[in-house]
Amino acid sequence: MVNRRLSATYSHPGSANYRAVGGAWDVPTLDALFRSGQTKSTGPLVLEPDAGVSLNADQLETMVAALAGGLNEIGVRRGDVVAWQSPNSWELIVLYRACWRLGAIAGPIHHQAGAAHVDHALATLSPRLFLAKEDVRGPNARFDSLLNSGQSITKSKAQGADIAVALFTSGSTGLPKAALHTQRGLATKAITMARAHDLEPRDVVLMPAPLAHISGLLNAVLIPGTVGMQSGIMGAWDPEVALNRIETENVSFMIGPPTFFLGLMAAKKFTTKRVASLRLVSCGGAGITPAFVVEARQQLNCEVKRTYGSTEAPTVTTSRSTDDFDRSANTDGRVVGAAELKITDPVTGRQQAAGAIGELLIRGPELFAGYSDAELTKASIARGWFRTGDLAQIDDEGWLTISGRIKDVIIRGGENISAGEVERILELHPAVKHAVVVGEPDQRLGERVCAFVIADQPFDLDACRDWFVKSGATRFTTPERVVRVDEFPLLAAGKPDRGELRNRAAALTHL
User: Fold this and answer.
1) Do residues 44 and 161 both lie within one domain?
2) Which residues pair with 509 in a beta bridge?
């Protein structure tokens, strides 16, 4: 495999201000940031009970230095890519940090990615080293040999502008894109979010989301390393196991899509008392309704807030504990840090007034440095503004509400219907816990509206029609098929797999 260098494909227009003294990029490299965080630690920094591993600051530093030495011994240098495919484990945190000490690029591939996606990822990254699952952990794991094959490296070789990670986007169609983030961009984000969540060394996070995704990376690697707090690793999500760990490890912070917390609250042995240590739950992704926030706050007895972000622009909005509860429950929050938002008309590109729905554009110091493909970057970013593909609105006080994806528009008889808006109306019904709306093929109209719902009370097409009439919704937006399900098929990131649901809807058409 030919090794080549990944590089940023555009420059931030605001980079001069970001780089100024006191600017957003006036931050340490990730290695230096973590060394500072380690001095604040009062207990384990990495915990994986199933593996019998608990690493304090000194033990973690020893591991990182040894692995950096091992990687250097086999020829990994600043700018090289180290890729791996493995479930969550403590070894991955050490891998990330060893790469960043060398100024190398981490290239995590989701552990459930199929052969075609893995081949695509490796062709994109051209890594100096690739570690498969058995290379990370197992009887003959190469990870172990790397720990003992070189002279420990304690001095960082990185610079803030270095690419730190190539993260592959998740989606229901097409091959994933590799989004590149710099050390200074990730450091800026970690510092910003630690402050936004009021996190301290005494806090403990439990992370079931894959460390190959931005949520797992930010909240299990970057923020804990910055704060000096304990990061609890889960290899796979299991509500009962999570309950035990929250109770025994005094977990105070969790983040993830609603499906994690709905499963936690539905667990057979769940009681509010067992999660008494929880202080903050932060939720991102589809299906976060005001009703979910209210229910989760009551059952978990802690602050539950919404966030918005993406692989390319990690957590750009959220709320704070001092914010108005109704705003926190009904919107996806306000900007944290130096990010900027605007809403534009998806067709004309003209900026929209406050309250209007359009495409969300983002720019800021935490934004990714571009895709590995320069043409994709050019198509997605103009003058530093990243086109998210999300439909949203921003009120006159800066509160953001995501309506859905532009590509999730259903075209019925020439009328454009926002799947997100139909889902919002459905989830206001007291019986509906979660809804996903897709287009069902129709020879005459092109598409019809098909709703898949999780409901804890009877809810059928007649009940749906009555609800939409009472809601005053536009008639043609009313679902023409309602399918109750126990759970949705999920993508690796925990989001509903709309592609699979479209396939199911298409199959129903022929029944």
Assistant:
1) yes
2) none
CB atoms within 10 A of CB 273: 8
Given a cut of 90, whether residue 291 has pLDDT beyond it is no
Asked, for residue 88, whether it belongs to a domain, the answer is: yes
Strands 446-455 and 432-442, sheet pairing? antiparallel
How far apart are alpha carbons 182 and 81 in whole angstroms? 13
Same domain, 224 and 245: no
Same domain, 255 and 182: no
Name the band, by pLDDT with cuts 50, 70 and 90, for residue 150: confident
- The neighbouring-strand residues paired with 180 are 166
pLDDT for residue 281 is more than 90: yes
Residues 420, 424: Cα–Cα separation, whole Å: 6
111, part of any domain: yes
What is the CATH number for 461?
Answer: 3.30.300.30
Residue with token string 């950096």: 68
Helix axes 258-266, 290-300, angle to 10 degrees: 40
More confident call, 438 vs 491: 438
pTM of the model: 0.84
Q: Does residue 82 sit in the same domain as residue 162? A: yes
Average pLDDT on 163-191 reads 87
| Structural domain range at position 311 | 237-335
The token pair at 499 is: 């592609």
